[in-house]
Amino acid sequence: MVGHNVSHSNIKTKRRFLPSLQDIALPSESLGQSFKLKITNAALRTIDFKGGLDNVLLNSRDEVLSARALKIKRQVKAKLAAQAPAAA
What is the distance between the alpha carbons of residues 14 and 4, in angstroms, rounded to a whole number? Predict the structure, then answer.
């Protein structure tokens, strides 16, 4: 987003509002390893609320995920599919 810095004398200068990105390692329960991702604070709160990285990836549409997140999602799906016949 863009907007203005407004001084005390009401002079307006352009500024940008950038997302608050964090480099963080998120663990995947099904794969048993951590993945370093750059996500926003809002996405981190969503991951905590939804119950972990695996749940968020499996319940998200492919269009909204990054290429790295799609790769992790495919790995999680493959791991869960391999575990499903063994449990049955």
Answer: 5
Q: Which of 60, 67, 68, 73 is nearest to 28 (CA)?
A: 73
Q: Exposure of 54 by Cβ count < 10 A (0-12 exposed, 13-18 middle, 19+ buried)?
A: buried
pLDDT in tens, 7-25: 999 999 999 999 999 999 9
Give domain limits for the chain: 2-87
Residues with Cβ within 8 Å of 82's Cβ and at least 6 positions away in sequence, in order, are none
In this prediction the pTM is 0.77
- At the second CATH level, the architecture of 2-87 is Roll (2.30)
Q: How far apart are alpha carbons 52 and 47 in whole angstroms?
A: 5
Q: What is the pLDDT of residue 10?
A: 97
Nearest to 43 by CA among 16, 23, 63: 23
